[in-house]
Design a protein that fits this description.
The protein has helices spanning 8-11, 26-36, 49-56, 64-72, 89-95, 131-140; strands spanning 14-19, 41-47, 79-83, 100-104, 119-123. The protein is α/β, with parallel strands linked by helices. The protein has a 5-stranded parallel sheet. The relative contact order is 0.20. The structure holds [cytidine-5'-phosphate] glycerylphosphoric acid ester. Residues 18-22, 27-28, 31, 47, 83, 86, 103-104, 106, 125-126, 129-130 line the site of [cytidine-5'-phosphate] glycerylphosphoric acid ester.
Length: 142
């Protein structure tokens, strides 16, 4: 008996990535583009305002609704969701049936525990640009 044809959905490789993506800049765009290039479908978890407040002690410049709207509008992005907690990565990877987890290398080694359920890839950060540096630059401009 011939093999069953593979369903297109089953053959798709899903990539998942996470971030705050506040004051969206080219470093964010490049990591998203490079993540998308590793698969067929890109899902992005955008961190919640409450998560930022808890972990970084400040609210992002742009609200979670605005950050979601910006990331969802990008051509390489297929789906977005709110990342409510850093501790829920395993649940999100499973929920979105991700084959690959991609993060910038500022997170290198931090998510190796998920090797049992997906590939884990750390991409080099784009040098010399960050949300923090942009906020400082804008704040000091007269
Ligand atoms: N990034 C990059 N180059 C830069 C700046 C950021 O490649 N110059 C990448 C980061 O490595 C990350 C993504 O862009 O993969 C989003 O960066 P942030 O918005 O700073 O996200 P962060 O607050 O680190 O994510 O589960 C993770 C959390 O959502 C927090």
């Amino acid at each position: 008996m011939p093999d069953q044809p593979i369903e297109p959905a089953a053959a798709r490789r899903t990539v998942i990535t996470f971030g705050t993506f506040d004051v969206f800049h080219v470093g964010h765009l490049r990591v998203i583009e490079r993540a998308a290039a590793l698969g067929d479908r890109l899902v992005v978890g955008v961190s919640a305002d409450a998560l930022n407040l808890r972990k970084k002690g400040r609210e992002p410049v742009f609200s979670q609704a605005e950050r979601l709207e910006i990331v969802a509008a990008l051509k390489p992005v297929d789906e977005v969701f709110v990342e409510e907690s850093l501790e829920l990565k395993r649940d999100y990877i499973t929920r979105y049936a991700a084959d690959v987890l991609v993060m910038g290398d500022d997170w290198a080694g931090r998510f190796d525990e998920f090797h049992d359920i997906c590939e884990v890839v750390y991409l080099p950060r784009t040098p010399a640009i960050s949300t923090t540096a942009l906020i400082e630059k804008i704040s000091s401009a007269t």
